[in-house]
């Protein structure tokens, strides 16, 4: 079965970018990483047999690329003529909503890789079973992890003073 | 009270993306992959080509009158072959240790994917150390057999000492260089993988 690369990008680019942004902590690295993910999706698309959901496959490629991202020398190919035109349009000063977003990204960035991966997938509303399929961790382990991470993030938000976060 | 999920919804609304031009990306990728393939083919052909040119060069020199008086002894030929075998062994081990990150299967579950990289990174040093050791094991006796007939100013024992000393020095230096490179390029990622897999 042949899959349309453009169609896949159109459908998943936002999710991919948010995951990249959560992993890198800044927009510049996120753009580089986004490009890497696109390359890996393009390279792997021919071997996608449809054994899992397309979304799971995309998240696997995205997450593994993020986990493997090295700041220097990672770029597989120099795509000088191509640059992803994508960003998060929030400004972190003065606006409380934007400040919340900025804090959330900062706190996620402070987590360990595995926790970061799990919480980003959870926030993208993947089910525990899907997260398990993407990460290879057991569903129980994921449940425990997510509770722990949510507590951790909530306490960071609360310590910050201005915001009160529950753990829903 | 805000939940994490509701903040993430705001993040979702804040994600702005102009259409990703998949066609342009794909065209670039195809072109670059083609270039890479060509470079690979040239790389593969270069070694036999160099050997052929070298052999032709040696043959031409041997054919000239000035050099025709000297013929290699069987011992020297064996020595020469040992040096070549050592070199081939070293190349083989270095190739084995090379991790082709471009061809990793990124679509595996993360713990399988990272486990694979972890094992490759750990084995990498083993292959390199084995390659260097194997190379020296062939190179030292090979050079010894090859060069002994030429000795005029030093004794055989001195020659053996010089060969061992210089080869082990070069071996130690290259091993150290590999270690530094490994630490620079892969130590951090290996540590991160260890944490991910053991958490």
Descriptive key words:
heterodimer; A: mainly alpha; globular; B: 199 residues; mainly alpha
Largest sheet of chain A: none
- Average pLDDT rating of chain B: 81
Outline type of chain B: elongated
Largest sheet of chain B: none
Helix content of chain B: over 70%
What's the alpha carbon Rg of chain B, rounded to whole Å? 27 Å
Identify the biggest protein-protein contact and residues per side: A-B, 69 and 50 residues
Low-confidence stretches of chain B: none
| Number of distinct helices of chain B | 5
Order of SSEs of chain B: HEHHHH
Label the structural class of chain A. mainly alpha
CA distance, first residue to last residue of chain B = 31 Å
Supply Rg of chain A: 17 Å
> Stretches of chain A where pLDDT falls below 50 for ≥5 residues?
none
* Number of distinct helices of chain A: 7
How far apart, in Å, are the first and last alpha carbons of chain A? 40 Å
Description:
The complex is a heterodimer of chains A (168) and B (199). With 168 residues, chain A is mostly helical. Chain A is built from seven helices and one strand, in the order αααβαααα. Chain A is globular. Chain A starts with a helix and ends in an 8-residue tail after the last helix. In chain B, helix 3 packs antiparallel against helix 4 and helix 4 packs antiparallel against helix 5. The model of chain B has no long low-confidence stretch (mean pLDDT 81). Chain B has five helices and one strand. Chain B is an all-alpha fold. The two termini of chain B are 31 Å apart. At the A-B interface, helix 1, helix 2, helix 3, strand 1 and helix 4 of A face helix 1, strand 1, helix 2, helix 4 and helix 5 of B.
């Amino acid at each position: 079965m042949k899959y349309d690369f453009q169609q896949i990008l159109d459908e998943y680019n936002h999710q991919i970018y948010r995951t990249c942004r959560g992993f890198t902590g800044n927009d510049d690295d996120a753009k580089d990483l986004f490009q890497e993910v696109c390359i890996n999706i393009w390279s792997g698309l021919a071997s996608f047999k449809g054994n899992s959901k397309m979304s799971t496959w995309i998240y696997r490629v995205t997450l593994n690329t993020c986990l493997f991202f090295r700041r220097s020398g990672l770029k597989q190919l120099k795509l000088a003529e191509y640059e992803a035109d994508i960003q998060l349009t929030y400004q972190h000063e003065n606006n409380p909503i934007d400040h919340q977003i900025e804090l959330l990204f900062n706190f996620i960035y402070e987590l360990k890789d595995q926790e970061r991966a799990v919480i980003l997938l959870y926030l993208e509303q993947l089910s525990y079973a899907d997260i398990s399929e993407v990460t290879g961790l057991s569903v129980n382990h994921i449940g425990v992890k997510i509770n722990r991470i949510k507590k951790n993030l909530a306490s960071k938000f609360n310590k910050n003073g201005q915001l009160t976060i529950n753990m829903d | 009270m805000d939940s994490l999920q509701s903040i993430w919804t705001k993040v979702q609304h804040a994600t702005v993306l102009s259409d990703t031009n998949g066609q342009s990306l794909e065209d670039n990728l195809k072109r670059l992959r083609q270039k890479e393939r060509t470079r690979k083919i040239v790389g593969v052909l270069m070694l036999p080509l160099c050997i052929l040119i070298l052999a032709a060069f040696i043959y031409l020199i041997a054919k000239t009158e000035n050099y025709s008086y000297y013929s290699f002894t069987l011992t020297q030929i064996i020595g020469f072959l040992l040096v070549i075998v050592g070199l081939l062994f070293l190349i083989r081990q270095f190739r084995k240790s090379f991790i082709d990150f471009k061809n990793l299967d990124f679509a595996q579950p993360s713990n399988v994917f990272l486990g694979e990289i972890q094992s490759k990174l750990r084995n990498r040093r083993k292959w390199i150390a084995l390659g260097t050791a194997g190379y020296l094991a062939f190179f030292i006796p090979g050079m010894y057999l090859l060069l002994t007939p030429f000795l005029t100013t030093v004794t055989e024992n001195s020659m053996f000492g010089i060969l061992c000393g210089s080869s082990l020095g070069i071996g130690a230096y290259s091993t150290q260089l590999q270690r530094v490179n490994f630490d620079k390029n892969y130590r951090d990622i290996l540590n991160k993988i260890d944490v991910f897999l053991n958490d």
